[in-house]
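Lab notebook, bench 4. Still working through the backlog of constructs that have no structural model yet. Next entry is a single chain of 109 residues. Request: give me the structure tokens for it.
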Amino acid sequence: MYFIDVVVMLLQPTLYIFFAALSLAQFQILYSYALHYLSLASEKFGVAGGVYFQTVHAHLERVLGSPGAMKFNFTHVLLASVLIAALVSVEKLRIIIDRSISMNKTKTN
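Model written out:
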């Protein structure tokens, strides 16, 4: 058990960087598909629906830019990996707190 913990501890930074790069690539693909389907929906749903979908499409492109212009460098990957590490740490802390609360409840009963 302890050997596995040491191996996981040593591999965590690499895994965080790998999953951050994977997440950024998935976001770029998902964003590209979302804009594509918004433009298809604006053509299909008539005047009222078309205006709504065109507005959403325009706002997304104004805020995030076009999908082809997205270029992620290593700084973006590191920032995403820090975010993933923070989320994992908060979740580990939540599990520890839940376990200590449940152990205190069983001791008092």
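Notes after review: The first helix runs from residue 2 to 44. The chain has one domain: 2-108. Flag for follow-up if needed.
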